[in-house]
């Protein structure tokens, strides 16, 4: 089979203006960025406000493994197949980060014959939204440090006299706003800034990957430009020497940050290999942020199509939980069905059984043990009142016997049904049966419900997430988290929803506990306020907000050839 | 008079596809980015290879002052007026950096009725080229530090065994590649990276503004994508423990960096307020890099128009010298005329005479003394064999008496002629006489000559630049510069041209010496190899490669209004 980029390059895309026109976007609502990408105006939702919303399908997965489960392949394949089956469908996915593209994971356009094309345009700059987030984020960091510098060198009184601005009295040891870059930059995780004769004071800082920026979460959760502006104003950047929050509004930088992100508010339209529309927008990671693409993209697609297919990062304990309790709570746009993606390999890897045997070979012991993980995710999604369809993403090495066993076992669960998907190898036709099953699931009617109410106390919300969300027996807070909890309650931030930052590699906080962890205590190490995004982030165990490059990173293979074409992008 | 952004917003732009069509660009050579911007393919120059090159006009200025001389206003106004006078003309300018936009300088689109529009699209992301430069630059930094990390933790032998790659033995104390961000970030000038338990080794680093990146210079000097690829491969990122250079090719990251910059190779077409074409591309600063927009943009414009107007940063000792000895040397595209921009205010400020009097008031003593600075720049440009036209950029407070005195004095110099320009207040018509004078100057015929030959030794080239370029009596090298000189000669880099990094605020290295400095010694503090850009940078005195935000930065005024429009961008 050809590589992803070969398939993408050999394909002749339709003009993106034609894709837009077929979807029902007016020419004056479209801003072309080359032949294959276009920004879509939020004016669409106003024009079509009276249209009924499309049925929303959310794609999630079992606990992820290093082998890749094919969630984006399934999201794109399902979109291709729903259109193939005669249902007008639009996919909504997140923009890929360049960190993984040049690191180890490679691109994030789907793969095989279920791809967004041209894949190199999706995987690299797209229409510049991630760059805009980085730039706005780092302007706030520069502004904060410049203010600290001037107030420190002049003293508060002289600063106010010379600048006409009130002194903020920033506590250099309580700067909450870090910096961002869209690369895997281990050496910038913890840095010290302000060295030199006139650049200080020296203090700690560090860089996160841009997908971890609170601005990325804000972009994904905002309803429009004015909402974006308000949220940016509420960002808490630092504490002053009295322990009170200093916001982007206080610093006077919220307007300029919004201006930098003004174009980023519009989703980007691209197409699948079958010419189906795909809106790409935002990209907060699901382990450290809320892990879902934007409310704006979904709301535009909802007015234009009959079905919207979107995906949530990592397993259902991660992205899907946040999709429900953060994104849907904010948007009110509830899903009609959920798809849980699974592979035979993923079940074996989730079995918790050590084995020397090639994971591509039949292994009923590991398969049976790993099945529990799938059942947990089916039950987890079901408790939100949404019908569950299991998509078995087939690999060439899969045996019919193991697939048949799996289908039979899924039949004994709460799942509405399951189908094998061969979207990777066969595109739309490979997912036609899955699309039919998903369609039937959306006809059943869902009764979506949230896990908790925002009016509940932060302690109660944490307990609910731990026990009902992950199956923990108890929750414990570090001393730091306890004092942060008190501060949050004092400052009236107790009514925000919770965004849990934890490893995605286990339902628990410990990546080594596979299958269905039970009876464990969930250790909350830190509670971080994200007043702009509108949630409190609970850090569980050790969570990394900046990846690193491995021994043989993906960039080693990437180059241009003699024709100036990109090669080696996986 | 309306503000720049008000003038820009009230203006109805022509579709950029129409501007392109009138210029002679085929639809398949154009990639739209919204309604007002389009990338132009390098295919134009191949298709029109047999066309005669347009006549090239280079706009420079007297020694700059804090008041602004209006070089971009004159460049754009002259372009508008040449077209107005019936000469098919295209402007070529650099992309503005967001640092000054949110710092103090404001935008860089020209001003008044001589602007590139929409000015906010030019001043913010444009089509993402600066973001691409930042991203490619910082990928190299991440790759270098990741390699250092893995080689350090494993040791060379185990590293090679596990990765299959030869160890580079990077000397952490000799990392030459810093990082970049397109903001004024004082606190990142000198930092230490690699803190934390598993992120090291700890070592020094720092950020420059993106315009100071060697990649920005490379973008401006490359002929095409393959040339870009070769130059990136030659970048020297660090030395190994034996003092030998480690290149981007050695690190295996040159291909991926090129891929990130692949779209940036195409200039962006915009329009002036009169609907004249303007190509925007690259933006190396003129104090720390070579200070000119791209060879590619000039070469495309040269095939499409009869006149190309471009500008060089700061005074003629800075950008124009580098335009000549670096850019024209590389491109072979010689100027037919040069314009030196001057204002009454600039001459008074360059007089070196301290005065309490308002600089807008008549002051014959300061004007007479400051005139010497203009005459120096006329002579400086003349020695390159190019006819010089002086453009007096008129301000509302200028008196007729002082303007008449100035015109008469210019008549006694080597200048071909001079005219008052009122492009700011009146657009094309305000610069019509200037355009006529420039046209006549280009009819004279120039005999362009370079100041030195690359085959000359580095010492000899430095001496020529100091004595002939700035009027210094002598040159002295610091001990550091001496040992760097020896290293460069040893490693066969002696045949590169020189790019001087010095203050632009004086012809000498001392910003406090105004007028015509003479008899001074030029102190070279450092010699830096820029093997990719293809020059050796000589640092003279203290040069800053990262600006800082002032007490009341421009961002304080910038916001969106209730209609979602940008306000406060100057």
Automatic annotation (TrEMBL), chains A, B:
ATP binds at residues 65-72. One of its GO terms (molecular function) is formate-tetrahydrofolate ligase activity. It catalyses: (6S)-5,6,7,8-tetrahydrofolate + formate + ATP = (6R)-10-formyltetrahydrofolate + ADP + phosphate. Transmembrane segments: none annotated. Keywords: ATP-binding, Ligase, Nucleotide-binding, One-carbon metabolism. GO terms for biological process: tetrahydrofolate interconversion. Pathway: One-carbon metabolism; tetrahydrofolate interconversion. Its EC number is 6.3.4.3. Belongs to the formate--tetrahydrofolate ligase family. HAMAP family: FTHFS. This is Formate--tetrahydrofolate ligase.
